[in-house]
Write a structure and sequence with these properties.
The complex is a heterodimer of chains A (326) and B (677). Chain A has 326 residues and is mainly alpha-helical. Chain A has one domain (28-59, 94-303): MetI-like (MetI-like fold, Orthogonal Bundle), CATH 1.10.3720.10. Chain A is built from 14 helices and no strands. In chain A, α4 packs across α5, α4 (40-58) packs across α13 (271-299) and α5 runs parallel beside α13 (271-299). Chain A is globular, with a radius of gyration of 24 Å. Chain B is of the alpha/beta class. Chain B has 3 domains: 9-227, P-loop containing nucleotide triphosphate hydrolases (Rossmann fold, 3-Layer(aba) Sandwich), CATH 3.40.50.300; 242-264 and 276-328, no CATH class; 347-440 and 519-670, P-loop containing nucleotide triphosphate hydrolases (Rossmann fold, 3-Layer(aba) Sandwich). Helix content of chain B is 33%, strand content 22%. Chain B has an 8-stranded mixed sheet with strand order 17-18-19-14-20-21-23-22, sandwiched between helices. In chain B, β12 (349-364) and β13 form a beta hairpin. The chains are: A mainly alpha (326), B alpha/beta (677). The interface between A and B is large, with 34 and 42 residues. Chain B: Belongs to the ABC transporter superfamily. Chain B: It comes from Streptomyces klenkii. Chain B: It is found in: Cell membrane.
């Protein structure tokens, strides 16, 4: 594998000769990557997401305002050369604020969704695959967390954790957001466990955890990805809701959620206070959704576009970072 | 077929074309079929999956879904079936044309009594009283051979066994004296002894009603035994049609020749199978030439130019421009027998199983589950496999074959009995030892689609057992292309996914995966029963070649006795969890000792009309008893002809004493008190 990775991509050979000189079997990761690169929506959304990150983390360096600076000479001012996206009602620069909020929301949204999905898939798959007491104990915890009033607990806990920053907030949101997904994964695993290819792996002596990683999770990945993309939007929304009630991100820190909440009553009179933040949130959630669709199609070999039709267009295309098969 | 539609034709199909709507335009299924079914005649329609044979039968009943576009004409006794309204069709269905489906469970409504369902069929077309219809239903059940029909008519479908359900469906089909009975794979879902019973019932039903029978089947043996005339379908068209005797004795179309050469026969051995290369074409992509040309050994430019029409002298017509000689297919080199002079006793043992037993608990109650009994799934199985040997394990569904396999492969101490793998008892293995031993026994499953992870490329599937045994990455990367070529695939196929292969190729991947870690014993669980005949032959030949090259031992589980006869060295017969007979395959097939083996062998259809009709059949009465009851004596005696003929004193031995294995010649044992020596 490593030897082929260092070679330049072989010139596209027509038909069978390619087979004869073909490198050793390409791993599943590489095949998925190639399929992902073939999807137009997927690549576009990945690029958009990358741009959003660039904007959020590099953008603030282009203006001399920071999100806490107050310009008393410009209250509720429309976009201008000095304040690119205008100012809010106390004279803060909207550009700096939105970008800072975008940083927070990007990180909170993606990290929460990722953590919750990983937690759900590990717990759900283990409960479903091992069955018996493992299943009973894990299901008990899932049910316990489901009946906990999440909002109340976050409300009680978060003031005490205010000093430890937003990462704790991510953990809190994730801990209360994975249970339903885990239950679905568990039931899907229970039916997958009876399939012959899983039984074949068991009889080959493959380690149970390896079976979960190599057979169970890829076969529930379509669901996990769709669920995770929805969870991204959900995390941003619940962060907004909690911040509104004063539990999440607190001033002077901002997030897209707090900015939208602040700007919503001025949406029609001073649109720049509202629409820059709202627009970026929409772009962000949409990009994540399209990325999820692309990932799902890339991981599901039976889906959509036949590879043969797409192949000629990708001649000479060098896939990005090569990942050894896991 | 060349004769024009005559008035005495019970069913006349003319120029039938069926297209199904697909996402990428219409998908043809039937491309111009002409069939004539005369009164009282049995026409066999043969073909592989996807050849359109079932679609023809469904079209004749007007049962195709709305997405199908049907053209042509289907005349049932002079009435046009195509384009007829739902009301008109309802009058014709059942009265003129009746159908027997493959799956008898879904053909009966589960919530109504069987008798009522047959009575409903009677009253649908005849103006008779409810009582009269009920009496008629009981008569019909009696006609199809259901014992105690009066009581059975009040039973629900789930209380019937598969064979009895199919009898009830046949009773329903003949309830209104139809002119034509369409039977679509009527015995495919059934065991071979039950199949023999059902074919017998179909014959009776056809004789009683004088109806014409269109028998659709993929099984050449069934067709040989039943049909007067045979039509062979390929790629949506009839490619050859002839009287049965002529077709089997002197086929003319290369496809028919290939099909007959590819099917293993229970009555001959050693004949190498000639697989038909390639796989059936995609009907959307036909170019206009003969659709069989890409697979045909005789094809040339003339074949690619034009699709040949059916032509020929008299009744025997073929759609082929060639006149093939006796053996157009290259005969694969016969694999020399593996055993070389060494007596069997001196060969190292690969697997030895003695008195294996496995029970499953039966629970009752929802809130307080309590054990109320046991299913004796496996109750005394003995197996013995030496190096380089193939043991065929045969038995009908429910005989405990799969349970026995899983017990062996679990590599843990069995509930009762002993299992020795490569001379080591599996009872006392540590986990590490068991893991190492897993490398020397591998399994190939029945359904290649289900046993390959759809999300993994072929290369990774094959690499999996290697990784499980802890081989390094370089070793794996080198071994995968080697394995792919070993099973007749290309090394470049490694990054394709399972759904991009055909059925036969998928099974080859399954075999490559099993061979990856160089096992000594390969367990093959019905490895070819999901494949078409022409593809199956290729896989069987591959297995034989691999065994010879690699010195493997096979445990070959199958319900298909012809396949076992072809591939096995020794055979072991199971009935209800017990081994009833085992021995060298030639010996057992030539001189079966156990009455069950005798019945089983006589039920296997032979693809040769003259032999199939001449030979004597032992029809087993009834169905296997419930495995929940543990029988002290012989489990077969309820259906045994020998037991039925015994006197009281001898009979009590069968009831009270479990028959032990008795030796009949070298290595040939049978567990019967009264088997003749």
């Amino acid at each position: 594998m490593t030897t082929t990775a260092t070679q330049p991509a072989p010139p596209p050979a027509a038909g069978p000769p390619a087979a004869a000189a073909a490198p050793a079997a390409r791993g599943r990761g590489r095949v998925a990557l190639r399929r992902f690169a073939a999807g137009r929506n997927a690549v576009t959304s990945a690029a958009v997401l990358l741009l959003l990150f660039l904007l959020a983390f590099v953008g603030p360096y282009f203006t001399h305002w920071s999100h806490t600076d107050i310009d008393y000479s410009a209250l509720r001012e429309a976009p201008s050369a000095d304040h690119w996206w205008g100012t809010n009602r106390i004279g803060q620069d909207v550009y700096a604020q939105v970008l800072h909020g975008l940083q927070k929301s990007l990180l909170i949204g993606l990290l929460t969704a990722l953590t919750a999905t990983v937690l759900a898939s590990v717990v759900g798959a283990c409960a479903g695959y091992f069955g018996g007491w493992t299943d009973r104990i894990m299901t008990f915890f899932i049910d316990l967390l489901l009946v906990f009033p999440a909002f109340l607990i976050i409300a009680i806990v978060s003031p005490r954790l205010r000093d430890s920053g937003w990462i704790v907030f991510v953990a809190l949101l994730a801990v209360f957001g994975w249970m339903i997904t885990a239950r679905v994964v568990r039931s899907m695993t229970r039916s997958l466990r009876e399939r012959e290819f899983v039984r074949a792996a068991q009889l080959m002596g493959v380690h149970p955890l390896r079976i979960i990683v190599r057979h169970i999770l890829p076969n529930v990945s379509s669901f996990l990805i769709v669920d995770a993309t929805i969870a991204v939007g959900g995390a941003v929304m619940s962060e907004t809701g909690l911040s509104y009630f004063g539990f999440g991100v607190q001033p002077p820190d901002v997030s897209l959620g707090t900015l939208i909440a602040d700007g919503s009553d001025a949406a029609l009179t001073y649109p720049w206070m509202f629409f820059f933040a709202a627009g970026l949130l929409v772009v962000f959630v949409l990009a994540v959704n399209f990325l999820g669709d692309g990932l799902r199609d890339a991981l599901d070999p039976t889906s959509g576009h036949p590879r043969t039709r797409r192949r000629p267009r990708r001649n000479g295309h060098q896939p990005g970072p090569r990942r050894p098969p896991t | 077929m060349s004769t024009p539609a005559r008035t005495d034709a019970a069913l006349a199909v003319r120029g039938l074309r069926v297209d199904f709507d697909g996402p990428a335009g219409p998908v043809p299924a039937v491309r111009g079929v002409d069939l004539t079914l005369r009164r009282g005649e049995v026409l066999g329609l043969v073909g592989e999956s996807g050849s359109g044979k079932s679609t023809v039968a469904l079209a004749a009943m007007g049962l195709l879904p709305r997405t199908a576009r049907v053209r042509g004409s289907v005349l049932a006794g002079g009435t046009e079936m195509l384009g007829a309204g739902e009301k008109a069709l309802s009058r014709l269905r059942g009265r003129r044309v009746a159908m027997v489906f493959q799956d008898p469970l879904s053909a009966l409504t589960p919530v109504h009594r069987v008798g009522d369902q047959i009575a409903e069929a009677v009253r649908a077309h005849q103006d008779v009283s409810r009582d009269h219809a009920r009496r008629r239903a009981v008569e019909l059940l009696d006609l199809v051979g259901i014992p105690d029909p009066g009581r059975r008519a009040r039973a629900y479908p789930h209380e019937f066994s598969g064979g009895m359900r199919q009898r009830a469906v046949i009773a329903m089909a003949v309830a209104n004296d139809p002119d034509v009975i369409l039977a679509d794979e009527p015995t495919t879902a059934l065991d071979v002894t039950v199949q023999a019973q059902i074919l017998d019932v179909l014959r009776t039903a056809q004789r009683e009603t004088g109806a014409a029978l269109l028998l659709v089947s993929h099984d050449l043996g069934v067709i040989a035994g039943m049909a007067d005339r045979v039509a062979v379908m390929y790629a949506g068209r009839v490619v050859e049609s002839a009287p049965a005797h002529e077709l089997f004795a002197a086929p003319r179309m290369p496809y028919t020749i290939g099909l007959l050469g590819a099917v293993p026969r229970p009555d001959t051995d050693g004949r190498p199978l000639t697989p038909v290369p390639g796989s059936p074409p995609d009907l959307r992509l036909l170019t206009g030439g003969c659709p069989f040309a890409p697979r045909c050994p005789l094809a040339d430019e003339a074949c690619a130019a034009d699709e040949p029409a059916l032509a020929g002298p008299g009744e025997h017509v073929t759609a082929c421009v060639k006149t093939p000689g006796p053996d157009p297919y290259p005969v694969p080199e016969p694999v020399p027998p593996a055993r070389t002079g060494v007596p069997r006793e001196d060969l190292p043992s690969v697997l030895r199983v003695q008195g294996l037993a496995k029970t499953f608990p039966v629970f009752k109650g929802a809130a307080f589950r309590r054990r109320v009994g046991s299913v004796y799934a496996v109750d005394g199985v003995d197996l013995d496999i030496r190096r380089g040997e193939t043991l065929g394990l045969v038995g009908e569904s429910g005989s405990g074959k799969s349970t026995a396999l899983m017990e062996i492969l679990r590599l843990a101490r069995p509930e009762a009995g002993e299992i020795e793998l490569l001379g080591r008892p599996v009872g006392g293995l540590t986990q590490r030892e068991a893991h190492t031993l897993r490398g020397s026994v591998q399994i190939v499953f029945q359904d290649p689609m289900a046993s390959l992870d759809p999300r993994m490329p072929a290369g990774e599937i094959i690499a999996e057992p290697l990784r499980a045994q802890g081989r390094g990455r370089a070793a794996v990367a080198g071994r995968v292309p080697e394995l792919l070529e070993l099973v007749g695939l290309e090394a470049g196929h490694a990054d394709r996914f399972p759904h991009e292969f055909s059925g036969g190729q998928r099974q080859r991947i399954g075999i490559a995966r099993a061979l990856a870690v160089e096992p000594e014993l390969l367990v093959l669980d019905e490895p070819v029963s999901a494949l078409d005949v022409s593809v199956q032959a290729g896989v069987l030949n591959l297995l034989q070649r691999l065994k010879h090259e690699l010195g493997l031992a096979y445990l070959f589980v199958s319900h298909d006795l012809a396949v076992v006869r072809h591939i096995a060295d020794r055979v072991s017969v199971m009935y209800l969890g017990r081994t009833v007979e085992s021995g060298p395959v030639g010996e057992v097939f030539a001189r079966p000792r156990h009455p069950y083996t005798q019945a089983l062998l006589s039920a296997v259809p032979v693809p040769d009309p003259s032999r199939e009709r001449a030979r004597e059949r032992i029809l087993l009465a009834g169905d296997p008893p419930s495995p929940v009851v543990r029988d002290e004596g012989c489990r077969f005696r309820g259906r045994c002809a020998v037991y039925a003929a015994l006197g009281e004193a001898d009979g009590s031995r069968c009831e009270g004493v479990r028959p032990a294995a008795r030796e009949f010649g070298e290595g040939h044992v049978a567990a019967c008190h009264f088997a003749e020596a």
